[in-house]
Design a protein that fits this description.
This protein is α/β, with parallel strands linked by helices. Helix content is about 35%, strand content about 15%. The longest helix has 17 residues, at about 160-175. The structure holds zinc ion (ZN) (2 copies). The site of one zinc ion has 6 residues, from loops.
Length: about 270
């Protein structure tokens, strides 16, 4: 099992289970030495089942901070969130950037509550997705890009626009020194699916990571945990690793994401 995971949810988002403390205990049991909580960021409009409500934020902060103290001798706990880049939500994002130890960028929609990446079927959407990632990095609002290939969930085939997107995301990662995530969440958990050009996991996809290997992008593994039990199995991790088997990827080991985040926060605007 890996030693650090910065992609961990809590029941507050409405599609994860267990108490915060159960996540901590399972992570310790799995041998992790660093645990970052990164639940789905709240925005002023509620969206039950997808992200926490703004009213739950104080409890989230308080709970993770107190676990950080309680388990300090056993595991390093950090308070983060998985945030989307939505220019319309800039006040909320600014507040998160100020308060949190780190932010991962998980772009699930192009605009808040609209244009879901899980419904992509054309190249214009892909282009707009890449622009969101690029602008988020330009603003230094995030410390790694979660599941960069998430929009392949439904996308019918790995075509030219997908490869172009991977090239551009790789360039963004190198330019801003932002790690890209090999995600071990629903893309592999739900098993392989049939697409127009064959069978694959929705994400991660080998074509993306071939380009990330070629461009020597920094890569970080994210378990995208939604259930404490997920810490206790390597099945999803092994599935994700099987996708990139044999690629000379630049995996970050002993990467101090939180110290890097402190530096990036100074550049945030
Ligand atoms: Zn989730
Ligand atoms: Zn996530």
């Amino acid at each position: 099992m890996i030693k650090a995971n910065y992609h961990t949810h809590t029941a507050r988002c409405g599609h994860a289970i267990g108490t915060d403390e159960e996540y901590v205990q399972a992570a310790i049991q799995a041998g992790l030495t660093t645990l970052g909580f990164s639940d789905h960021a709240a925005y002023p409009t509620p969206c039950p089942g997808l992200r926490m409500n703004i009213e739950q934020i104080p409890d989230y902060y308080q709970s993770i901070r107190s676990l950080q103290d309680k388990y300090a001798s056993q595991i390093d706990i950090h308070l983060g969130m998985e945030v989307e880049y939505y220019p319309s939500q800039w006040d909320t994002i600014r507040e998160y950037r100020k308060t949190l130890d780190y932010i991962i960028l998980g772009q699930h929609n192009l605009t808040i509550d609209k244009d879901s990446v899980y419904e992509f079927d054309n190249k214009d959407q892909v282009g707009r997705y890449v622009t969101c990632l690029e602008e988020a990095c330009q603003h230094y609002m995030c410390d790694y890009i979660a599941h960069p290939d998430v929009f392949l969930w439904k996308y019918p085939r790995i075509d030219e626009s997908v490869l172009n997107a991977a090239e551009k995301i790789a360039d963004i990662s190198r330019y801003y020194d932002i790690p890209l995530e090999l995600n071990c969440g629903s893309g592999v958990r739900t098993g392989k699916k049939e697409y127009l050009d064959g069978e694959r996991y929705a994400y991660p996809t080998r074509e993306f990571f071939e380009i990330f290997a070629k461009k020597k992008c920094p890569i970080i593994i994210g378990l995208d945990i939604h259930n404490p039990q997920h810490f206790l199995t390597e099945e999803n991790l092994n599935r994700a690793l099987s996708v990139v088997e044999g690629l000379p990827l630049n995996f970050l080991t002993d990467y101090d994401l939180v110290s890097k985040a402190k530096e990036r926060k100074k550049l945030f605007w």
